[in-house]
Amino acid sequence: MHAPVANTIQLHLQPLKWGHYPAIIATTLALLLGGCAAPSDEEASADDSPEATSASPTPLSLDERWELWNDPSRQKVEAFRIFDNLSYVGLQWVSCYVLETSEGLILIDALYGDFAEHAEDGIRALGLDPADIKMVLVTHGHFDHSGGIKHFKDTYGAQIGMTAEDWVLAESEPSDPRFAFPQIERDLVIEDGQQISLGDTTLTAYVTPGHTEGVLSLDFEVRDGEQTHRAFTFGGVGLNFSGMDRTEAYLASVARIRSLSADGERPISVNVPNHPEVGQMFERRDRAATREPGDPHPFVDPEGYAAWLQDIDSAARQKLVEEMATIDSEA
What we know:
alpha/beta, Metallo-beta-lactamase, Chain A, six-stranded mixed beta sheet, 10 helices
């Protein structure tokens, strides 16, 4: 586990131009364990896609998944506001969020291929200007999260942030050329414990290895009227990797997030996942659409978040048992 370091990014920019939980447990287990069928530990990143899981009657092949992932008619989702300062501009199977600050926009993840333009369209539909994108924080180096970085860098001059380990991953040549994406010079190299600030907004970065060696997780505040809530993006949930060391690192990362979540004065109450199914984003969206004044916010669920982390921990411990059995069988 990494110790936090005292390191801060501060951007000084010009002013702007402008449910219940048992079902989540069952779904998440299927998503996590089913993702192990991905073609490469470091490339496929089908970690949280329901279409890729063993829970499906007939699991899809990589070719079928690739077709699905690149079909606009099955991937495009209308942008929607989650909190006053946080909105969803992602796809059916992979997330992208826009976080509004007093000095511009921060994207969490960059999507891939032509879908980077889908995120732009969503930003416009929310009444925002993509030209105000100042920063893109990338949870890890798999193509579905990193593939659009060059677009946002070249089009808007956005600063791209990733951990050192996942810059290496993003720059590596994939075994399957379909997972390749346009590269850029390294921009922000984010370290554990780093405070990333833009205007009135500060995020805390945590390096939480497991799914990849340099998963970036983010801790930040979201606003609902006069109320604020602690939100968290666990940047790599999937168990589609192999090895005792990586599994133990994953467990240590989950334990660390559980400790953060259990803060009695400031518990994590909002799950901002980088694959929407993991946090039931669309089901919560639909409940929020009928929310009446005074009703609880459907995305605020500290008990559910703690239960989800327990579920992830259990799945990873089962994976560790399987990894140990593999080693014993090879001995």
